[in-house]
Structures are given as C-alpha cells and as structure tokens.
Amino acid sequence: MTTITMDQAANHLNQEVTINAWVTNKRSSGKIAFLQLRDGVVNFQGIVLKQEVGEDLFDLAKGLNQETSVQVKGVVQADDRSSLGYELLVKDIQVIGESHDYPITPKDHGTDFLMDHRHLWLRSNRQHAIMQVRNEIIRATYEFFNDRGFLKIDPPILTGSAPEGTTELFHTKYFDEDAYLSQSGQLYMEAAAMAFGKVFSFGPTFRAEKSKTRRHLIEFWMMEPEMAFTDHEASLQVQEEYVAYLVRNVIDHCGLALETLGRDIQQLEKYTQLPYPRIEYSDAVQLLQDNGFEDIQWGDDFGSPHETFIASQNDQPVFIINWPRAIKPFYMKVNPDNPETVLCADMIAPEGYGEIIGGSQRIDDYETLSENIKSYQLDPEVYAWYLDLRQYGSVPHSGFGLGLERAVAWITGIEHIRETSPFPRLLNRLYP
Ligand code: 4AD
Ligand code: MG
C-alpha cells in the first residue's frame, strides 16, 4: 500500500493508502468519529465508522488525544465540503506516539504563552501559512537573481568590521581577537562584486538593538545584492522589480496560505504595479511638517509614525531618496546635486510595515572613503582591505539589503514580525 500525504489525494481517488499524521482535533457521536489530521503538508478529515472498523478501533479513534501521532490506513474519497476536496475513510489506525495534555488547545492563548511554546505553536495552520510564504520569498529570491546572472556569495558571519555603526554589535572573542556577529555582509559583497560583477547574499545578520517593536528582530535574514558598474538609479529599478516579483510569486504560489491568513489579494495585486513612487527626503520632511508632524526637522531620522504617514500617501511601496549624509553610514556616495545628501534610498512598505529595503551607491574613490573612515572614527587597519577595493580598478557600484522577515510580515499582512521567524530572537527572548 502506498504511503502518501493528502495533497496527493487526487491521484489516489478510491484507493487505499497509508498516511502518517498528527491528530489536531476530533469529534464523535455513537457511530461515527471525525478525526482532524495534519500530515505536515495539509490538514484533512478522517471518517471512522463504527460499523466498518468494529468496536475496539472505534473506541481507540474516539479516545485519541490532540497531537497524538498516528499511521492511518484508509480509502481516499471525494468530499465537496472540504477545501481540499477529499477525505479519508479510515480502515485502520496505529498510534505512533502518544500525547497527553497538549498545552495549546483550541481556545485562545496569550502571546507570551504562545511564544514560550513556540516549538509547539509552529504546528498551527497559521504558522504553517506564514512559513510557506517565507519559503516562497526565499525561493523566488534565488530565482530572480539567478535568472539575472547574479552569483550567490556567502559573506562571513564572524567579522572584525561594523558597516552599520558600532552601537548595535554583538561582541565575542575570536581566540585572542575581538570579533562581532555580522550586521550586514555588504562590505564583503563589494569585494565580491569587484570579482564577479553581480552578486547576492542571503544569510543571517545580527543587531544588538534594544528595540522592542513589531518590526525589530535581534537576528534576521538579509538579502544583499551588490552590482559593479551600476549607479543608484539602476539599483532602484532592480529593487522595485525584485519586490514586485516577490509579491507576484506569493500571490501565484501561496493562495491557500494567504486565504488562511485572511490577506486581501486585491491589495497585494497593487504592489505588483511598477514603477514605485519616489520622494526626496527633503520633500518628505516638508510633507510631514505640512501634516502636523511639527517636531521633524531637516536632518532628523524618521520614526515609524513618519514612515507610516509617508507610505499612507501611496498605494504602493515608496522610495525615500537622498537622505542627509550625517545620519547615514560612512560608505555612501555624496549626491553631486546636493552634497549635504547621499545617493541612497529606503523603500517603505505600505500599511505601516516600515522600511523593508535600505540601499545606496557606494563611495568608489580612495581619498573620500579614507577620509570618511577617519571622520566616522573607524579603525583604518580594520578597513584596509575595504579601501584596497578603491585602489585596484575601482568602479561605480551600488547595492541594497532587504530584510526577509519585514518582507514576510508585510506580504502576509500579519501584525508582528515575531511570527515571521520559526524561532525569533527578540529582546529578552532566547527561549525556545
Ligand atoms: O538599512 P539596513 O541597516 O542596511 C544595511 O545593512 C545595508 N548594509 C544593506 C546594503 O546596502 N547591502 O538594513 C537593511 C534592511 C532594512 O531595510 C530592514 O528591512 C532590515 O534590513 N532590518 C531589520 N529587520 C528586522 N529587524 C531588524 N532589527 C532590522 N534591521 C534592519
Ligand atoms: Mg536602513
């Protein structure tokens, strides 16, 4: 007898099959029991008829606890009422692993309780749907960049440098030296771009940020392309095409997951339209001041209320371009049209999800970069290799970083970033 998962039911209609699963719920009357089963791919119903299986097996079915693992044998039947279209008429049940007093019951639980039981909470339909979207975004990312001739490069996670500022670093000892967990692979990706032209990375990054918001994780995954012979304008086009591609693929491949999450597909469709609007930082400040944000001054960084307001003016993600030099990292190239600003952009997602991409054109000239390293009080010895890139055939180059979990939160439409990671690392949470 073939062992299947129930998503393959259509190929086994009216045949007897074996399925390995967990019991998520059940109800029964005197003659019939309905088992709700999860095989890891889909949820489905098993029907147990007392008349067919006999008293002993029927009693066993009726007594199965939530999350007991079972091997069921049965016949695949068509069932119009289930979203799957099929159910299983059960013939036999073997208990694999018992389960007693499963802590997460069908009633509502508080967030802290669920986070403490994250290792079990992952079994829910909702978490499954979110992980499916996350997986699709990862899959589509590899596809997008491979199709466009980018080479995947893995920058190191243990580093001696701090591309995004020194305040948010996780420090560790590297034998006798000091080391940090990577905040961003960018500097290494610049070296790779000088070797291979177009490259992208996709890996874990760490920020020891004391932020406890719905957008911040301590450990998150970043996707960072870097492109030689590319100015910032061309990079913006890659960014919007990439994000629209992610949304398109999630709509096309994760229909059931989006339905489970109650995501409005019409809304998502709007995000596949290009180009995305752009606003100069200076104009954004003006817009904010004109709309009651009197506290904001030219030169200030934006907080989430500011980002949310600017995003609310559009039905698509919006680029805020050309930020003040003073609030951006040392490696960004000065904007020749306004030297107080740099050639960079943040892409702000709609619906209050905030910045999902940060990107810029990099300084390609040795003198300027060398001066910046000094004026930002960075150790020139640590950055000697990075400066080397400006000595041997330096070229204009640009790149960006997309935060995977922010993208997942936005595309799934969920409230908080903590559910986008299987085991989120949050402020004050390392368990489980
Ligand atoms: O804007 P950031 O700090 O940019 C960089 O690190 C650049 N070196 C990227 C590059 O040009 N190669 O971070 C990029 C993105 C943000 O837009 C956001 O989506 C995400 O990373 N991000 C976070 N996501 C979750 N939790 C946090 N604490 C995050 N910090 C940044
Ligand atoms: Mg940023």
UniProtKB/TrEMBL annotation:
Gene source species: Facklamia languida CCUG 37842
SUPFAM superfamilies: Class II aaRS and biotin synthetases, Nucleic acid-binding proteins
GO biological process: asparaginyl-tRNA aminoacylation
Broad EC category: ligase
Superkingdom of origin: Bacteria
Protein name (record): Asparagine--tRNA ligase
GO cellular component terms listed in the entry, alphabetical order: cytoplasm
Record flagged with keyword Protein biosynthesis: yes
Record keywords: Aminoacyl-tRNA synthetase, ATP-binding, Cytoplasm, Ligase, Nucleotide-binding, Protein biosynthesis
E.C. numbers: 6.1.1.22
Gene name of the encoded protein: asnS
Molecular functions per Gene Ontology: asparagine-tRNA ligase activity; ATP binding; catalytic activity, acting on a protein; nucleic acid binding; transferase activity
Subcellular location: Cytoplasm
Assembly with partners or alone: Homodimer.
Catalytic activity: tRNA(Asn) + L-asparagine + ATP = L-asparaginyl-tRNA(Asn) + AMP + diphosphate + H(+)
Domain Aminoacyl-transfer RNA synthetases class-II family profile positions: 133-432
Family: Belongs to the class-II aminoacyl-tRNA synthetase family.
